[in-house]
Here is the input.
Amino acid sequence: MSEVLELMAKRMDALARLENGSEPHRAAGRLAADRFPPGAGLMERIQAIAQNVSDIATKVDQILRHSLVLHSKVSEGRRDQCEAPSDPKFPDCSGKVEWMRARWTSDPCYAFFGVDGTECSFLIYLSEVEWFCPPLPWRNQTTAQMAPKPLPKVQAVFRSNLSHLLELMGSGKESLIFMKKRTKRLTAQWALAAQRLARKLGSVWRDQKQILVHIGFLTEESGDVFSPRVLKGGPLGEMVQWADILATLYVLGHGLRITVSLKELQSNLGVPPGRGNCPLTMPLPFDLIYTDYHGLQQMKQHMGLSFKKYRCRIRVIDTFGTEPAYNHEEYATLHGYRTNWGYWNLNPKQFMTMFPHTPDNSFMGFVSEELNETEKQLIKGSKASNMAVVYGKEASIWKLQGKEKFLGILNKYMEIHGTVYYESQRPPEVPAFVKNHGLLPQPEFQQLLRKAKLFIGFGFPYEGPAPLEAIANGCVFLQSRFSPPHSSLNHEFFRGKPTSREVFSQHPYAENFIGKPHVWTVDYNNSEEFEAAIKAIMRTQVDPYLPYEYTCEGMLQRIHAYIQHQDFCAASGPAPAAAPAPPSPFVLAPNATHLEWAQNASSAPGAWPPTHSLRAWLAAAGRACTDACLDHGLICEPSFFPFLNSQDAFQKLQVPCDSTESEMNHLYPAFAQPGRECFLQKEPLLFSCAGSSTKYHRLCP
Here is the structure.
């Protein structure tokens, strides 16, 4: 204020000098004087105010000095009360105080919480804001202990009007506009699905959850590479999935907050000002947070210790999945599984995938538009038997080596259509005999699929939504078989992804869970096999088909079940192997091939899926539990591993264990044939359906 007044005084002085100058100067002076009109005695009044401000500053300075003297006297009196206590319940306290002494100025957030460089402020912060030190006996404990009362539970009610959701989604980015258009187009299907599921669930009470959805890959801080490419044929799979997640959570009746910027995220979480080293300023107001790897990183950077406290509430949308060996930070680092992603030490079920390819994670999915019976009949009547549409909108897909050979064969039998993005002229990679429609809006693309007989993939992109849309519109999907299979060990696209999964075709879900007659997987390098497949497809009649899990109702049912049953904040189920074993709940199946949960054994409380559905098999050597379970028409269920992690399970299966060890290994529990050794799992986060070794027969739930 002093500086501003001094500046004004100088300007007034300059104006006075200008008044005595020549005519042009007077004009300039008048213009300047219009901004600072010099009233009678204004100079004197400014100088008087400046003197007052100066006096106030002096007095404030005296008060501060006096208060510091008082503070030092109080500190002297309390020095014995402000020493780091040696309490065995708080072993890190003295080390944290040392750290605070040296580093408390490294982040403004400490000062925000009242740290001022004194021992007392360190201990108050470390006992009341963080939790490394015991509460100080002379502090008023009521303020520290008064946790907010939990809000009364509200029942979630299905919603059918999505207009408020469209407002919540915001605008301004091409990606958000795309997502909103999709949601609007599917509104009637969501409403119908909600009615069906409501009838199935009957009077089941559903808690309304408060949910934050933070789409990290759309934030400017993560580069938002997707939005600019929406109109240029870029990948839309992630946006399709996020649009459907938002619709699902909203239709299920939960409270929703959506953020696509770091600033909004910080505001909603209650992040204190600073560099992100302090906990949140308030208890987390959300029961669940849905985000992606980018959002996870942003939360870790800005939530301080609160990240560790609340990470059990986070669900990570993770297209390709994260296997337990990559998720456990120490194990990944020691055994070569560390990547740029992974190593978060979450429960692997907190990662949610696009397709059900990794049972260690939860299958989130997305939806495809469902046809009614009238539409299905119309499509069957309007199909062109010799029309093929190529999967992929970017010109780079057409650079595939050797495509001329199989495209030449396809061109003999079918008219080939493309939907490749181009700005002014046809992309040079697209052959002249291909009819290219350019990038089509979704409704027009659906119309093209409804006429076509065949939807053909060139091997990339992997595991997108388009093949399901094509099959739902009555197309046959033809894709190439990969030999050897693609994985993070041999393929650039998968390198660095936190999974060792081997991909045997462009769309493994379509190959394994749908299959013929809707899906054909052939070797494109074998011209005879490729041509025979084209001929067979032309003779084959198929109806439009959509698996239940990709309908609106299927997705609503699945996410409802996760929200009702998955609780990663509760204490984990049965203890690892070291705990004394309760009476065994297992019996050997009548044909002596596997274990079952005994009918007279009570189910484990809180277990989901319910334990009576558990079956346990000893896999062949070199077989992963994922595959061993599929061999028996079953799905590997990692939440059942703790029940099998005991000597009793091996004994009941009549496995001859000469010795039993408990170690950290993502393949355990397992039996090693040479040496007749049995191994139990020491680290619950490493229970894994994925993974195999020729040395071990894995015990699989």
About this structure: The longest strand covers residues 476-486. The longest helix spans residues 42-78. Residues 373-545 form a domain with the Rossmann fold fold (CATH 3.40.50.2000). The CA atoms of residues 627 and 633 lie 10 Å apart.
